[in-house]
Design brief:
By secondary structure, the protein is an alpha/beta fold. It has 15 helices and 16 strands. The protein has two domains: 6-269, Queuine tRNA-ribosyltransferase-like (TIM Barrel), CATH 3.20.20; 276-377, no CATH class. The strands form four sheets. An eight-stranded parallel sheet has the order 4-14-13-12-11-10-6-5. A three-stranded antiparallel sheet has the order 1-2-3. Strands 7-8-9 form a three-stranded antiparallel sheet. The radius of gyration is 20 Å and the shape is globular.
């Protein structure tokens, strides 16, 4: 995709680096800052596409590694790509599979050409190269696809991180060369751990390449919150102003707002959907575990400030009953709520960037996170 895809409308009225914009893609326009729900295996767990759309989501993710192994990219392509396969008509982003492959530390072997790995499903042997990762993603047919990169461990030495950076740059060049579908936007990925010097070096290397967007990888892998935000302080000023910036895998509400004020546009994380399946919900009062005994006779809504199906139709007592009875419906209802909560947060952020009040949102999320930490440590 050679045409520019990002349109920045305004910057934060209060003077931060936050940007209000939109990413224009073949299957729709994504207002930014945006949160992208994760649909690992061509489904956001427990939701239909219509239910996902009703949460306010405009884009979702698919996982190249998982879809390559099962059901296979060729079968997805036979449906016209992921959009036809999963029945979602909005934009889709697929990762390259790099993070999943490199997380299989005991089941993979890396060389300069690519990675040999074993399937976590049946132990079968496979190989990913940058060219193959692009080929698979072209078959999947997402609007945004990602370069195949090497994600170093959070505790890796400077030498390990530098070697991963060098591979990631070479592989990015090969991905660009292999990419042939002009209806897909291929994003580059900046690595470098939490080392300011390495992050700066790699951001400069990657931005010399002609990608329509850039991702910040290698965070949310075990570093501290302070290390994450300080890394963003280093990286985002080095990324092009006229292209979208995607922070991969980061998704606490506090993380999102702190990244937004540092100039990040796009986010994804399994946190809201995974926590829903663990009975944990995000509300205007903070995080709650609906299994808690104190909700047994609570006739109030899950969150009085929410207008989702879960909150307008059902009580906390009913939701807790579903949890105790192990009824599958609770996964759907809590997932609807959590994703709606996240999309409401993104709407508030976009409004605040344009008209002021972003600082109030940041302060609120800091308080909610501090209260949650106090409850956890009590």
């Amino acid at each position: 995709m050679n045409q520019p895809i990002y349109n920045q409308r305004v910057t934060d009225a209060e003077g931060s680096k936050a940007r209000l914009g939109e990413v224009r893609l073949p299957h729709g326009v994504v207002p930014t800052p945006a949160f992208m729900p994760v649909g690992t295996q061509a489904t956001v767990k427990a939701l239909t596409p219509d239910q996902l759309r009703d949460t306010g989501a405009s884009i979702c993710l698919g996982n190249t590694y998982h879809l390559y192994l099962r059901p296979g990219a060729e079968l997805v392509a036979a449906h016209g790509g992921l959009h036809g396969f999963m029945g979602w008509d909005g934009p889709i982003l697929t990762d390259s599979g790099g993070f999943q492959v490199f997380s299989l530390s005991h089941m993979r072997k890396v060389d300069d050409d690519g990675v040999d790995f074993q399937s976590h499903i049946d132990g079968s042997k496979h190989r990913f190269t940058p060219e193959h990762a692009i080929q698979v993603q072209e078959l999947l047919g997402a609007d945004i696809i990602m370069c195949f990169d090497e994600c170093p461990p959070a505790d890796g030495s400077k030498e390990v991180i530098l070697k991963a950076m060098e591979r990631t740059t070479r592989w990015a060049e090969r991905c660009l060369e292999a990419h042939s579908r002009k209806d897909q936007a291929l994003f580059g990925i900046v690595q470098g751990g939490v080392d300011p010097e390495l992050r700066t070096q790699h951001a400069k290397e990657m931005t010399r390449l002609d990608f329509p967007g850039f991702a910040i990888g290698g965070l949310s892998v075990g570093e501290t919150f302070e290390e994450m935000v300080s890394t963003l302080d280093v990286v985002t000023p080095l990324l092009p102003q006229d292209k979208p910036r995607y922070l991969m895998g980061v998704g606490r509400p506090l993380d999102i707002v702190e990244a937004v004020v540092r100039g990040v546009d796009m986010f994804d994380c399994v946190m809201p959907t995974r926590n829903a399946r663990m009975n944990t919900v995000y509300t205007s009062e903070g995080r709650l575990n609906i299994r808690n005994t104190r909700f047994k006779n609570d006739l109030g809504p899950l969150d009085p400030d929410c207008v989702c199906l879960c909150c307008t139709r059902f009580t906390r007592a009913y939701l807790r009953h579903l949890v105790i009875a192990k009824e599958l419906l609770v996964h759907t209802l809590l997932t609807i709520h959590n994703l709606t909560h996240y999309q409401k947060l993104m709407t508030e952020i976009r409004t605040a960037i344009a008209s002021g009040g972003l600082g109030e949102i940041v302060a609120r999320e800091r308080i909610l996170e501090a209260n949650r930490s106090q409850e956890t440590n009590a």
